[in-house]
Amino acid sequence: MAGLCAIVQAGATAECKACRPQGETTELPVPDLRVYLTDGFADDHVVVSVDGRTVFDQTGITTKKMIGLARQLPPVPVPGDKARVEVKLPEKNLAATFDVDLSKGSHVPVTLENGRLTHSVLSRIGFM
Amino acid sequence: MDSYETVKAEASSAAAAQASRPLTVSGLYQGDMMLPQPGRFELELRVDIDPRNLISPVMNRVSGDLFQVTRTNLPGQPPQISRTYIESWIVDRPVITPSTDHIDVTGTVRYWLGTHPATTVALRISWPGSPPAVGAEVTFTETGGSARKYSCRRISDAFRNVNIEIDVCSSVNTLPLLPSYDTSWHDDRPADLPHRVMTIESIYEEAGVRVTIDPTHTVVDDSAAQFQSWTTAELHDAMETHFSQVGGTWPNWQMWGLMAGAFEDSLVGGIMFDTAAAGISSAGSERQGFAVFRKHEWFNGLVKEAPQNQEQAQAARQFLYTWVHEAGHAFNFLHAWDKGRPDSLSWMNYDWRYEQRNGDKTFWKRFAFRFDDDELIHLRHGNRASVIMGGDPWSSGSHLEAPNLSMSQIEGKAALELIVRSKGYFDLMEPVIVELRLRNLLSDASVMIDKRLQPEYGGVAIYIQKPDGHVIQYDPVICAIGGPEMLMLAAAGYAEPGRDRYSREIFLSYGSSSFYFDQPGDYRIRAVYQGPGDVLIPSEAHRIRIGAPVSKEIDRAAQDYFTDDVGLTLYLQGSRSPHLAKGVRVLEGLADQFKTTELGAKVAMTLANGVSQPFYRMQDPQSQKMVRTSNADPDQALAMTESALKLYRNDTSKSANLAYSRVVQRRADYHEEAGNPGQAKQELETLAQDLTARGANAPAVEKYQRRADALPDSNGKPPVTPQGRGRAAAPKKRPRAPKRAT
Lengths: 128, 742
Hints:
Chain A has strands spanning 32-37, 44-50, 53-61, 71-72, 76-77, 82-89, 94-101, 107-113, 116-119. Chain A is mainly β. In chain A, a hairpin with a 2-residue loop joins strand 8 and strand 9.
């Protein structure tokens, strides 16, 4: 197995267990969760929490209609395959909680549509 | 012939007509007005009622663009033809009645702009001759019965034509530069998808637009150290530098595309950057350019040969999709979800957005590589301004309420040019005065114009686009009727500088709809001149900015300023009517408070004009007699305009020349009325010297000098004659007599 390495798709740095010297503690790769605030935001105050920890809290969030994206959040390292994401718009009294299965992908676009926050989980994402 | 022979002949003729029926009558037609004014107007007609080819969907619409044609006849030369776009229309539910040798199409016309009487249109499409020449006789009938007829011939099976220039950055100058995708390459596709090889051109051809891509591709050197990604400002700058059409006339059916490396946001695979929505202020012309970012991870699997696996096929598919999508934005398409159609299987959606709502991998299994029906209707039949590049701003609908002619645009060689100009910035409350200038563009023929450029006479229409995008027509308070005041503009090639043009200042701040510039922000002003011979000359849009109040003091003053009393006083150039006394008091306060600014100067000039003339009114309603209630007071007028004179004398910018000239001319009148012609002479001579130093046109300067020369000086010395100055009295000799244009 020496020399065989697996590369984690979500972009986190990873090391091959088999390549480590014997006796060292191995660490599982920590994928990055990437949340995107996409359509429907207009000068909004948005708070995003991952597994109970606030990772984003900003005002003035507005969708750029040209590409359909308001803000890409910084990547959030998440141990394991699951993460609970909560998105709140305090001034609009809107909130939604998603359970994200990172084995299906690590890109989570969040859309505000008809007064509801919806999401999906993607293995790849792009804007144009 | 007996009846049998007649029937046989008719049947034979019908069969022949049926046999020669073209495969399609849909496409673009073009033709001239036949009645009531033959050749006066031209119609571009788009008929969309049967399949143009096996793949192109039918939208069942008829639409058209109307142009006014101007022919300038020059002796011994072919006529110079220009056409001015007037308006667009559409028939949403045409009724089609086919016959053996023709097709009748009728329907109700819906105009995109302005107000029109209820109008129906009837087309008779026929195809006489062998090979068949498809043509359409078009009749518009308005309520009341008046009719306009056109005779058009089919010139294309596409509805529109667009040219695209595509350039490439050196860092990504590898094949494939342009996308090509075989529908069989990727397994995820609709089962009934027609097999074909798709390119940008073929996709838009199916959509009804003939796209021609310039075969020359400039390579943009992006190899500078530390240059890693593009910003929208840099993309726009690159377009201004490399797009050969950017300095031409806009709107235009021209587009620029750039294959670039990476965008500042690495997630963006393509962008239509030429819009205020992308953060670019493009001086009025949007939707001219877009970029595709070759280094986006979507295109990692792109290969120059046919793909060998699904990942490569996906990259090729995405490459085509991105190019078509971004060009679609230049046609003024929003994303599908922004149009309330998040489930649209269209080039303008995102696969992952569709799949968020409809399930994983569903988009590509259902997408037929086409625009949706509403997009096709826009592309083929939309209002010209909302489709053409450089027309309406992206995603705006401001044109939909714009008045008639506000979007008119000239094509071809016109004999005249109309420009609107002024300084670019006005303080809030500062009277907005613009210059309209007509110039003869013919190098060897003079042109007659009606020099009554004031909107009051109806020969010039002025349109104002407000900061919110709304377009309105300036409506003067007064409507004037009178005979034309004709002026010959000399040929540009032979005239002394300035004789080929005529200018007039127009006050626009106030009209019958109250104040037009009462909000800070950007405005655009266009004018359309209608001259002798029904000539229609629109100007380009002129941009001005109205400033925000710079102090609480000005903000408070604005409340008293933006009233009808003040507006009317300004419009009437001063008044001593007691009914406007309140407005006059407000303006007097402003003139004093802001005497060192243009606001104060212009207001003072208005008030001075009022006091410089006697005022008559009916004081006694019983007697109905006009009585002089105020005498002319030129001394007061001079005192009021002292500060304005100082201001403009010290302002050496070219944009101040007209205002400076105006104040001196008026003060010269006041001096003469006050019995001080010598003072008038002195100020006029100073004006002439200053204008000469500022590079003003010689004829304009001479006009003031001549007036000065005609006045005695302060010591009573008689006026100077031209001979006394030693100047030649005869005009300059011209090489040959100029021809007159008709």
